[in-house]
Amino acid sequence: MILPALQKGDAVGIVCLARKVSLEDIQDGIRLLETWGLRVVLGQSVGAEDGYLGGPDELRRTDFQRMLDNPEIKAIFSARGGYGTTRILDQLDFSGLIQNPKWIIGFSDVTALLCHLQTLGLESIHGTMPLLMGKPDSEEADESLRRLLFQEPLSYSVPANAHNRLGTATGQLIGGNLILLNNIIGTASDVDYTGKILFLEDVGEYYYNVDRVLVHLRRLGRLKQLAGLVVGQFSDMNDTAVPFGKDMPQIILEHCAGYGYPICFDFPVGHVSRNLALVVGREATLQVTQEGATLAYTQTSF
Prior knowledge:
By secondary structure, the protein is α/β, with parallel strands linked by helices. 26% of the residues lie in helices and 24% in strands.
């Protein structure tokens, strides 16, 4: 389901779905949203805390539920990622959202929620969040998000990469944080990989653990089912005392050997300042050539 474009004057909400955040921490993001002509409504979970979390589970759940059920709120941002979204996911009621869809925006830990929405036939945005917005180095990420929210034409081109596998694929975009995708397997939030273009990113992981998760996806048949693969940023990677001996491209290509779909490496999505916004659940075409790669949506509006 293609969601309608935001309009100037629309109200948008900010809630804490995961790790706690202070109002001061998101001031730059609030100011940026206001320059876009949007009215920012803060949830009660902003500034709340329960140890690591942005308030107790029930507070975060009811806060988000109110935003989901409020017809005046046209989009909801997770203030930041961290951990905690899956703790409340099964207690949420999405019936109102299905009747009156609105944009849900976030990444990292929010991957579980974005996948859950896709199982309901709803689009969402894997993109930057208020904690990270409005910074000197976030302009490209911020602008890509604005263009998607206001349904302005948008496609991405990235330089050629020696590890790329050439080809063209069309399918719905799925994906996000690799560890979260593995975490939701077998739950109500698990998505169908068949014929999809999968994008992946992560931060602070060990090479062996990324390999272990990809082994799991391969054993499940998930990697074989894909139409295409977009490898985003795996930033701040760690290695063990005994080196794993393979880098990210080598790990990816090993587990995708024998599958003929195109693979694009080094796509600007993930825990980096240039975190370009992607519509999860929207059909797109990935084209990988010797000159580079492009990712473009096959449909952009009603």
